[in-house]
């Protein structure tokens, strides 16, 4: 019995989708920050012995391009998921606010803006309720925008230590999956895993603290 080899299985991506995906990657590679994400992390050479323990599915731009070229993606969502994984892995492993963490955030923003500007990979309305890779399902079915997550992340980064302690308490008590302990001294709040109620409570807490500070002439910090 003749059996078709698996290698000739074609990708479900159309020629137009492949072209758009390639153009998106080219756009990202024009950014100077992209050099940090162009190849797999050589954790052995860098002495990052814990990297494979923390990052279970490494990803980089060269790997995405190879998978795209060899028709490994059955749909555009898989392609976008891998791209997003590059930035997510970086933010998971590295300390919040560190230079490389910020570079990952910038690359994520460049990607999202390009996708929005060119209306790439827009799903048809006939499919099941939208499952956006840039936002997780929320408990009250309200979607948080990508921009609002970036805004809150920036506010948290600039928050004083005592306010950070309050934020951690909120996340631990109301949305524990959104908090991850990186080591004995570092934790990370996953913006994509925050539910709407926790997000709003943190946002209001920070804004309230900022408003109180602005009312005091001696305070110069702005949130």
Automatic annotation (TrEMBL):
Keywords, comma-separated and alphabetical: Bromodomain
InterPro entries tied to this protein: Bromo_chromatin_reader, Bromodomain, Bromodomain-like_sf, NET_dom, NET_sf
SUPFAM superfamilies recorded: Bromodomain
Domain Bromo: 29-101
GO cellular component: chromatin; nucleus
Domain named NET: residues: 134-217
GO biological processes: chromatin remodeling; regulation of DNA-templated transcription
Domain of life: Eukaryota
PANTHER family: BROMODOMAIN-CONTAINING PROTEIN BET-1-RELATED (PTHR22880:SF225), FALZ-RELATED BROMODOMAIN-CONTAINING PROTEINS (PTHR22880)
Listed name of the protein: Bromodomain containing protein
UniProt lineage: Eukaryota, Sar, Alveolata, Ciliophora, Postciliodesmatophora
């Amino acid at each position: 019995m003749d059996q078709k080899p698996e290698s000739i299985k074609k990708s479900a991506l159309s020629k137009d989708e492949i072209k758009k995906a390639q153009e998106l990657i080219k756009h990202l590679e024009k950014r100077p920050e992209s050099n940090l994400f162009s190849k797999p992390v050589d954790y052995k050479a860098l002495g990052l012995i814990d990297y494979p323990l923390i990052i279970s599915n490494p990803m980089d731009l060269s790997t995405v391009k190879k998978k795209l070229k060899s028709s490994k993606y059955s749909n555009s969502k898989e392609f976008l998921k891998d791209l997003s994984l590059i930035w997510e892995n970086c933010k998971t492993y590295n300390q919040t606010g560190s230079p490389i963490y910020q570079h990952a955030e910038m690359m994520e923003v460049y990607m999202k803006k390009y996708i929005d500007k060119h209306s790439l990979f827009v799903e048809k309305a006939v499919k099941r309720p939208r499952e956006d890779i840039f936002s997780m399902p929320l408990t009250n079915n309200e979607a948080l925008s990508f921009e609002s997550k970036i805004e809150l992340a920036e506010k948290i980064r600039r928050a004083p230590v005592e306010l950070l302690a309050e934020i951690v308490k909120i996340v631990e008590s109301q949305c524990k999956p959104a908090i991850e302990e990186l080591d004995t001294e570092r934790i990370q709040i996953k913006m994509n895993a925050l539910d709407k109620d926790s997000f709003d409570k943190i946002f209001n807490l920070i804004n309230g603290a900022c408003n109180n500070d602005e009312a005091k002439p001696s305070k110069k910090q702005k949130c």
